[in-house]
Write a structure and sequence with these properties.
By secondary structure, this protein is an alpha+beta fold. The chain has 6 helices and 4 strands; from the N terminus they run H-H-E-H-E-H-E-H-E-H. The chain is globular.
Length: 181
């Protein structure tokens, strides 16, 4: 098999993934096996020096929706039946020796995108949410001090009739530089 034979399936999956901001209100839960499967995809994500400085807290139900909404004040968030709160543990992360750069966010970003792609493959919608009040989130869910809330990933079945909007992305020629400057 050539290296490019399986690429079309991956590219299709990447194109199908979008930031879902409307969930099917008729489906108030997500099968726990599906949530476990998407988190297993995160488990398989690479991390700097294989430190895996993460924990994924799953919260669901009306109380969780209200608590999430207190940290992220957007009405659409309440339509999601479940949430994966991505927590980083900087003390366990790799730090670059030359400048001390903490790779917690980098490692979690890779793992979160694995979650989003796995969810898409399973017919679920997700959205990265980073514009939240971490103090409120920490208080609402009793998050210990050694964990840093990095992102909230609402997860559920997309609302009927809410297709992804067209992606507005730069052309490849705009983001690639061959050789040096």
């Amino acid at each position: 098999m050539s290296d490019l034979q399986s690429y079309p399936a991956l590219l299709t999956l990447i194109n199908e993934r979008y930031s879902c901001r409307a969930y099917d209100l008729g489906r108030d839960t997500v099968d726990p096996d599906l949530i476990s499967a998407v988190i297993d995809a995160a488990r398989l994500a690479p991390s700097a020096c294989n430190r895996q400085p993460w924990l994924f807290m799953v919260v669901e139900g009306q109380e969780a929706r209200e608590a999430i909404a207190r940290a992220y004040d957007r009405e659409w968030i309440k339509s999601a039946p479940a949430f994966i709160i991505a927590l980083g543990k900087p003390a366990e992360a790799w730090h670059r020796q030359f400048d001390g750069k903490d790779h917690t966010d980098v490692d979690l970003s890779i793992a979160i995108e694995h979650i989003c792609l796995a969810a898409t493959a399973l017919g679920l919608g997700t959205c990265w949410v980073c514009n939240f009040d971490p103090k409120v989130l920490r208080k609402e869910f009793n998050i210990p001090a050694e964990y840093e809330p990095v992102a909230i990933v609402p997860i559920g079945y997309p609302a009927p009739g809410s297709p992804a909007t067209a992606k507005n992305r730069k052309h490849t020629d705009e983001i690639i530089k061959w050789g040096s400057f």
